[in-house]
Design goal:
By secondary structure, this protein is mainly α. It contains eleven helices and no strands. Keywords: Membrane, Transmembrane, Transmembrane helix.
Length: 232
Amino acid sequence: QFLMANKLDTAMWISRLFTVYCSALFVLPLLGLHEAASFYQRALLANALTSALRLHQRLPHFQLSRAFLAQALLEDSCHYLLYSLIFVNSYPVTMSIFPVLLFSLLHAATYTMKVLDARSSNSLPFLRSLLEKLNANQQNILKFIACNEIFLMPATVFMLFSGQGSLLQPFIYYRFLTLRYSSRRNPYCRTLFTELRIVVEHLIMKPSCPVFVRRLCLSSISFISRLAPTVA
């Protein structure tokens, strides 16, 4: 009754569980490397479906207008719909599947707990314990996802020069990264950029750091800072 009363949430729960399943079979290619590549695409397509359903839930009345598009781009679900479309037809990159896998795992765990509560307050204690441990580490997981989002930017550039990526991919991914940086719901990308900057500045200001390395890092920090969007 709980599942039928929340059909859209249930559909997203199922698609997230399928995303976790496909992502796991890509990361751990138990069925062979050829099959792993197909699971990579399936995971991203399932994530695109979840993101589209979530975006529909957040903005139910579609309008073909600039205002609606601007509002949609503020939603995290729109960001990850774009993310899935960026990588779904690209060369499989393990690094790119982790945000999809971990976000799906976190959201699926939250809804699974609701399903267990609807069934009985004491049902499946072992599973409840695992879900509670996962939720307890949510902040660390979100920081890890943000790290992946940031370091995928240079990875897309490397893929371009190695012949495994398209010319447009780094530019589209840069747009995705600016959306994540400006996210209202998830500040971890901004936080990680700040923390990485502090760490790098601390290291390069040590007397043992060569001058040319210090200058290179400072100019890189300045360049990246100019690229960062303004956050309201």
